[in-house]
Every structure is written in structure tokens, then in C-alpha cells.
Amino acid sequence: MQSTDLSDVHPFGAGRFAALVIGWQQQQGRHDLPWQLDITPYKVLVSELMLQQTQVATVIPYFERWLQRFPTIEALAMAGQDEVMGLWQGLGYYARARNLHKAAQAIAARGSFPDDLHSLQQIPGIGRYTAGAILSFAYDSYGPIVDGNVRRLFCRLFALEGYAGQSRLEKQLWQLAEQLTPTQHNRRFAQGLLDLGATLCTARQPDCDSCPLQSGCQAYALQQVEQFPMPKPKKAKPSRQGHFLWVQQQGQLLLEQRPDKGIWSSLLTLPEVEPEHPLLQQAKPIGSFRHQFSHYQLDATIWQPQLQVQETAQHGWYASRQLANIALPAPIRKWIEQQLKQSDLD
DNA sequence: AAACCGTGGTC
DNA sequence: TGACCAAGGTT
Description:
Layout: H1 6-9, H2 14-28, H3 41-51, H4 56-69, H5 73-78, H6 81-88, H7 95-110, H8 117-121, H9 128-139, H10 148-157, H11 167-180, H12 186-200, H13 218-221, E1 239-245, E2 248-249, E3 252-257, E4 268-269, E5 272-273, E6 284-292, E7 297-304, E8 315-319, H14 330-345
Parallel strand pairs: 1-7
Antiparallel strand pairs: 1-5, 2-3, 3-4, 3-8, 6-7
Helix pairs in contact: 2-12, 3-4, 3-9, 9-12, 10-11, 10-12
The chain binds a DNA duplex (11 and 11 nucleotides) through residues 47-59, 90-96, 99, 124-130, 133, 137, 145, 147-150, 165-167, 190, 194, 197-198, 203-204, 231, 234, 262-265, 291-295, 329-331.
């Protein structure tokens, strides 16, 4: 491990660093995001879960709808899973929705919102970053954060080698975060780190001329800003086949609830069968699509079976007017809507 | 440690 | 247009 003496690894003292970030945030940072208005721990929790690996612009309409329907943590705790997943549909990483639901129930049962690092990390969906973010944003108290923005900022400032997820780098980043995070104006400091990463210290074409930390940035001094952080070594993306059934009966469509693990967990889909399933022998293919996930490519075929489908407890019938309010995976929704539009024209 | 988990925006 | 990226967590 490297030195723990801060003065060895960065040119600003911790106090000076925080003052620069805080001052810049006040003048140049973002102040009008929906979750920055009338801040409550619940709003911070919802926004942070939604923002995990998801862009701000994508989250905003989901956040607004969510707060309208579930204004309080008690309202969310009492809701059914169908409605929770329905409001999350299209946002991706659906375990976050289940975690948020469970978090609301746990906090409601607990009687108070947790306000320390350890208690926060016991809550489903809250890891080290989100716990620090809640301390900073909800309570304006000491809460170190390392997310993608902070990782990029620190890797450049200190010319840190390694890529996201490498334990040695992550350890360095968290140690720096703990040392550089002040004990005052913490909300503004944390927001400043994120704003710097999101608006100046960006992945491509960083705006170093506008950066308040330029004079202390090692990557800038080396003229290698865009060489940090090092890219993760990438692997080939495998391709998988999926076979889905199109079964209509009296104007209704057969859908299947997916299990709470795996891809599209807890969502409804067209029933999926194994490629060897006997139904496919007598079925005719009526469509296909290709969908890119982050870690594999799905080549889907949709079949219209000629034989009766064995229904299970996971199956249900849905009229087309119901489809808008149920939780469907984005590519499945797209295909269904296109199919229904075409059959309406017949 | 490394795989798994989604989707849409961007260039 | 494909590859990268985005306020990570869980297993």
C-alpha cells in the first residue's frame, strides 16, 4: 500500500481541496435537479437508487412519476410489487426496484430513517457509495463517496494507475475520499465532486481550462488527462438465443411473470421456452429481434404455437389496454406494440 | 475477483 | 453504427 500521508499524494491540503470544490460547486455546480429541491432522506434514497449506472436525464421523468405516486416512504412500503415494477419499467437493473421496495418496508418497520454508515449499508440496495451519498445529501454530514465521477476525477488528479473495479485502485480511491472529505458543507462538497465529474472532468473532451483543480492535476501536468482512468479490459460479448411465444385468446395476450433472479427479474414477458420445447415443433415463427444487453446479445425469435400452451401459476392474460401499466422489458414492449399495431391494420 | 444485472444517449 | 458510457450493488 502506498503512503497514507496525504501531502505525499496531492498538491492541495485536504482543507484547500474541499474549499476549492465547495466554492466551485456554489458558483458553477448543478442546483436545480429535482432531488435537490426540498431535500428529504426518502428523496435522496429514491434518486440515488435510480441514478445507479443511469444518466441524470434518463432518471428525471422516472423520479417525478415515482414521487407523485409514492410521496412518502410509507406509501412505497404499502404498495404492491406489480405497481412498483410498473413504475420502474424501462429504467433497467430491475433488482434496484425490488431493493427500493424492500428498503422502504425495512425503514418503515424500523420507524426511523437510518443515519449512520453501518445502518445504511444494512438496507437492500445501499452499498458503500450510496450510504455515503445519503449521509452527504440527506444529512449534510460526513459521507465519503466514490462513484464513476469521483473515480475519473481522482485518477486524473493523482495520476492513479489501474481500472475500475481493481481492488488496489478502489482501495486508494476510498482512502483518498475519506481523507479529502470535509466535516462541514458536506452536501455541497459531495455535489461538487459529482458536478465536476459530470460537467468538466468528463470521460471525453474534458474541459480542463474551466477546472478549479487544474493547477494540482497530475494528469494535466503530464498532458495525459484522457489516459486516465485506464479502460477496463473488455471481453467479447456472447450471443444467446431466446424463444418467445405469441398466444392470443379472445383479444387477450398470454404473458409470463419472470422469477426474481436473472435477466428481467420480476417483470412480465412473452412466455419463454427452451429451444427443444415440443411446442416449437408445431409452431411457426412470426417475428424476431436482436437486443443488446450490457453483457450479452439476445437474438430472439417469436413463435405462434399451433397446440395448446400449458399454463402455470406464472401465466396470465392481458388485454391490450392493460399493457401500458404493466412492467414489460423494453424490447419486449417494443415488439408487442409493433405487432399489435400491425394486426390492428388488418 | 469477476460475473451478473438494462437501457438509452452519444459520438 | 458499434462501442463506450452512465450518482453501483450483489453474489
